[in-house]
């Protein structure tokens, strides 16, 4: 048994703190909700939180999850027991982290744990959606159907992310090359011209002096710039462990805090991506048989943007009081208007699960289109910026030469 410390609100709205014992965090959460508590924070007592300064993500890739879910569905349909299914899939997966998780989970299932608890216990990199869907599938006896639904869900997410990344390859490549070329010119080429111009004597043109001063700065202080950038990256990484900073940082990716103004281009893409995650996850949760309150709670914990997740989680007290999801979302005012209106239609017609699928598909396409359009606009902007930089460098070199020729004449 593990011990978890929690902060929650009672049915009367009073905030209380305490501890709960359970095998997993999800089990502790369910027990607290059974006691009619609205959980705000839940942390394992004595759990270690090592400082993770890696830039990459330790989460399992969606493509690997899609393949794994498909294998689960096929083997379960064939009638294999869960333990043997886990062992077979683990032996075939190429993802070493996922293989280790499945092997350890097989041992725990054999020892009497449920599949969801075993995966949660051993899989820190597994999405909440994945684990909670499996838990719901076990409770409803529809595990095979849940795995088929998860396979489609993660396949769609993987395909959308791949298309967005593909659209970003060329602009990213051009920007990297541009930075390298400018750095080489400023660090190696300009100092050579500097010594030549200084030997001529006299005042240099302002633009030439500016380029020379910039070159001197980068040659002498590049290490300080590198330290500032590294410190900023580490500071943001550590700052995200604080809820207030994490909320501010994630909100910054969508709208400018305090001004209620959406961040141009990037803010719209991030907002549509959040709407896609909300609808897609809700569809999976409801197809697994979860009630809407629990589905919203799981969806909130699954969303990648903490600001949007926090906003969705704020709807839980009103949902538990019996209010429609659409009106709760409208009160929060963070989700796109179309997503809220479609949610209302789904609730009124009794086809919320199907409606969520439609919303997810719509915003998936919108994210892909908006990302491609943004990259196509970014390409000429990069070219113009490069042209300006080249023009300034050439002008800074030729102006002193013109002055020299003029003085000789």
Overview of this structure, please?
This protein is mainly alpha-helical and 409 residues long. The protein has helices spanning 25-34, 62-77, 82-92, 96-110, 115-122, 128-140, 143-200, 206-239, 243-252, 266-287, 292-302, 306-313, 316-320, 325-332, 337-349, 352-408, and strands spanning 2-9, 15-22, 38-44, 255-256, 261-262. The protein is built from 16 helices and five strands. The strands form two sheets. The chain has a three-stranded antiparallel sheet.
Low-confidence segments: 47-57
Helix count equals: 16
The rough form would be described as: elongated
What is the radius of gyration computed over CA atoms, rounded to a whole number of angstroms? 28 Å
What is the string of SSEs from the N terminus onward? EEHEHHHHHHHHEEHHHHHHH
User: How many individual β-strands?
Assistant: 5
Order of adjacent strands in the largest pleated sheet? 2-1-3
Strand fraction equals: 5-15%
Q: Classify the secondary structure makeup into a structural class.
A: mainly alpha
Q: In whole angstroms, how far apart are the ends?
A: 91 Å
Helicity level, as a percent range? over 70%
Describe the sheet with the most strands: 3 strands, antiparallel
Average predicted confidence as pLDDT? 82
């Amino acid at each position: 048994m593990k011990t978890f410390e929690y902060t929650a609100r009672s049915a009367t709205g009073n905030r209380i703190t305490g501890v709960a014992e359970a095998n997993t965090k999800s089990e502790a959460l369910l027990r607290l909700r059974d006691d009619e508590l609205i959980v705000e924070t839940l942390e394992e007592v004595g759990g270690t939180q090592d400082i993770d300064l890696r830039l990459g993500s330790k989460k399992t890739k969606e493509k690997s999850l899609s393949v794994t879910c498909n294998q689960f569905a096929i083997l379960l349909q064939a009638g294999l027991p869960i333990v043997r299914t886990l062992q077979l899939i683990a032996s075939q997966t190429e993802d070493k982290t996922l293989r280790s998780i499945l092997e350890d989970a097989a041992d725990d299932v054999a020892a009497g744990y449920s599949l969801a608890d075993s995966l949660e216990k051993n899989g820190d990199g597994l999405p909440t959606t994945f684990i909670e869907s499996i838990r719901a599938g076990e409770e409803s006896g529809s595990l095979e159907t849940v795995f088929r639904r998860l396979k489609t869900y993660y396949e769609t997410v993987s395909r959308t992310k791949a298309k967005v990344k593909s659209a970003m390859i060329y602009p990213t490549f051009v920007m990297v090359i541009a930075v390298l070329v400018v750095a080489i010119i400023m660090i190696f080429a300009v100092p050579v011209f500097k010594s030549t111009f200084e030997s001529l004597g006299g005042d240099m043109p302002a633009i030439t002096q500016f380029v020379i001063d910039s070159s001197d700065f980068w040659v002498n202080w590049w290490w300080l710039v590198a330290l500032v950038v590294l410190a900023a990256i580490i500071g943001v990484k550590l700052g995200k462990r604080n809820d207030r900073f994490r909320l501010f940082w994630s909100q910054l990716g969508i709208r400018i805090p305090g001004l209620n103004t959406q961040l141009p281009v990037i803010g719209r893409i991030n907002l549509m991506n959040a709407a896609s995650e909300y609808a897609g996850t809700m569809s999976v949760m409801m197809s697994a048989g979860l009630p809407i309150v629990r589905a919203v709670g799981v969806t909130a914990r699954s969303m990648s943007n903490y600001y949007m997740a926090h906003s969705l989680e704020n709807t839980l007290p009103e949902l538990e009081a019996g209010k429609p999801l659409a009106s709760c979302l409208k009160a929060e005012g963070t989700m796109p208007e179309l997503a809220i209106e479609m949610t209302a239609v789904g609730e009124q017609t009794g086809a919320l699960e199907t409606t969520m699928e439609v919303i997810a598909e719509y915003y998936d396409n919108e994210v892909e289109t908006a990302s491609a359009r943004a990259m196509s606009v970014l390409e000429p902007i990069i070219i113009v910026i490069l042209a300006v930089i080249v023009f300034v460098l050439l002008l800074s070199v030729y102006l002193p030469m013109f002055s020299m020729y003029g003085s000789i004449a």
